[in-house]
Write a structure and sequence with these properties.
The chain is built from 3 helices and no strands. The protein starts with a helix and ends in a 12-residue tail after the last helix. Helix content is about 75%, strand content about 0%. It has helices at about 1-25, 25-30, 35-55. Helix 1 packs antiparallel against helix 3 (about 35-55). By secondary structure, it is mostly helical.
């Protein structure tokens, strides 16, 4: 579970880079604010789902004495 946060931060940094590239190239101006916000919220939601899905499985540790 500890890697979920790091994975999500990396995903958000990647998403920020993509948005910066779209803004710099002028594509963001043509798309519009509403569609941009909808796309960002959807991408963050997908990132959270992927991060949780890849967080691993629960395992129980057996200690023999």
């Amino acid at each position: 579970m500890k890697w979920t946060g790091i994975y999500l931060v990396g995903y958000l940094v990647m998403l920020g880079g993509i948005l910066a590239a779209l803004w710099k190239s002028g594509i963001m101006e043509r798309i519009g604010t509403t569609c941009t916000i909808i796309g960002v919220v959807s991408a963050v939601g997908i990132g959270i789902m992927i991060a949780v899905a890849n967080s691993g499985k629960k395992e129980s540790i057996n200690i023999e004495r």
